[in-house]
Design a protein that fits this description.
The protein has about 80 residues and is an all-alpha fold. It has five helices and no strands. Helix 1 packs parallel to helix 5 and helix 3 packs antiparallel against helix 5. The longest helix has 23 residues.
């Protein structure tokens, strides 16, 4: 239950950010043809999320390091 004055968004932001990066990474691994047409447009958003992990309150002990995931995504994409 949320404390008074707390937003539900605070509790969902880390999950959303992590899920977004996980989805992109998984698509690049398993269904690259489905994501390739939009990767050029998607990359700035991916980079923003990865470089702003603290903004999403995504604890590295729980969600891993978003910058490391960005490196894997770029490697899979060939960027």
């Amino acid at each position: 239950m949320l404390a008074e004055g707390e937003s539900k968004d605070k509790w969902t932001a880390p999950d959303a950010a992590s899920s977004f990066l996980n989805l992109v990474e998984q698509k690049l691994k398993t269904e690259i043809d489905s994501i390739a047409p939009i990767m050029k447009d998607l990359l700035p958003a991916i980079e923003f999320v990865a470089m702003n992990q603290e903004r999403y309150d995504a604890d590295r002990d729980i969600y891993g390091d978003f910058r490391e995931q960005l490196a894997r995504i770029k490697s899979l994409w060939g960027a």
